[in-house]
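Re: the multi-chain job from yesterday

Posting the exact lines I submitted so nobody has to dig through the queue logs.
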Amino acid sequence: DQQVKQNSPSLSVQEGRISILNCDYTNSMFDYFLWYKKYPAEGPTFLISISSIKDKNEDGRFTVFLNKSAKHLSLHIVPSQPGDSAVYFCAATGNNAGNMLTFGGGTRLMVKP
Amino acid sequence: DAGVIQSPRHEVTEMGQEVTLRCKPISGHNSLFWYRQTMMRGLELLIYFNNNVPIDDSGMPEDRFSAKMPNASFSTLKIQPSEPRDSAVYFCASSLGGYNSPLHFGNGTRLTVT
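And the result, structure tokens for all chains:
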């Protein structure tokens, strides 16, 4: 049972345009959500997070939106740059999950120059 | 800060052999995690330590897998005996603790069991 799903395995975007990566979750106890970015042969690195008390969090070119009623979150990257090409993982946790993250399957983003 | 350090980066072994993966967490971090990444199952949590004590090992696939954290600066994940289906990338991560503390991952160990 996948509690965190990223339904798009890949996404291709032109440089300068917006990239939108989506994530859905099923566990209503999740209240904290994170996005990680992974380059080949490296470990995932933390990108941005959002608490369930907010519906938006912004950090430079990266913005995460949370729609609790739909159990959906998205990561917007604008403008997209070729260096953003990587695999992006959505992750979720909650107070009842201790310190453990549940990850989605990842979306491979390709930003074309 | 050197980040989370994992060794070896690559390990190729024959079925039936013992494999030991090593991890040095970031100094000051009191939570340590072992994850496994495969094409089929993505990133799955194997075991989680807090203050060197195993808190949740429900993700450990079977008795062939064991993990230890003898002190705050070192952890091992052992597979004995190894099988071809154990081939994956194994990541170690650490955090300051607290459910909203981001995890810091090492660069992983790519294990191939032939």
